[in-house]
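Section 3.1: Structural characterization of target chains.
Under the original work plan, the team committed to producing a structural model for every single-chain target entering the pipeline before any wet-lab resources were allocated. The record below documents one such target. The sequence was received from the expression subgroup and is listed exactly as submitted; it comprises 256 residues.
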Amino acid sequence: MKSKLLFKKINQQNLFICLLIIAFICFSNIIFGGFSKDIFLKILNSLSGCVGLCFIVLLSRNYGNFKLSIQNGMSRKQFFKSKMFIIIFSAFLSSLFSFIITIIIYILDKSYLSSFYISNYFQFFNSYILNLIFMFIADFCMMLFLIVFFNMFGSLMSLFNRMVKLYIYLLLISLTVSFFIGIAHEGFYEYFVRIMDNLHVVSIFKFISGFNTIDIDQRHSLANANPINAILTLLISSSILSCISYKITKLQQVNR
């Protein structure tokens, strides 16, 4: 019963925040841009990404929900199960929302559509219905992977105090900035490419993404990469991250 109440409470909070963000995006675009078909399609295009990002951020803030569950007498195992149900439900809801928006834009004006799946995978199956079904499945698996990853990272960060977390964030930012500055220099770029070639990164990427079925240089015109490879990769990765997240959950403590 406690698990159901936690599930309901967190989902209500997250849905309320998502609705507020949707309302803010719609009203701000209408107020500053007026209302037209062009504005309407641009709003729709931005909403799916914003809602997905909203769920990712909300569910990465793991400590508050963990503290609430422990204070209400839930075990770590019960909390983890509830958390995974919330993650799966949120990924499904976000994917369904994105799928509906994609279909609406596809019907109204394809030129406004920005879909990685349609650009690269949509002609893999001969059946239009199958293409639509796998588009939804692929989007769901991607959202599931992203939410699980950032939730796991948020759980990991909750094990450290504020000072250590600050050092970790600064280190990650520094490494990221240094990498992008370095990649702009020809010598570092050539060295990086050589390492990637030695590790066969391109071949591995083509296999796990399904791009091994197409000519990458002409993917925009062929659009028939194999989505099953990508879906399986995302599901396996999500399962591994979930196991890591469970191990971290067992180590979590409520701060005094």
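DSSP finds eleven helices and no strands in the chain.
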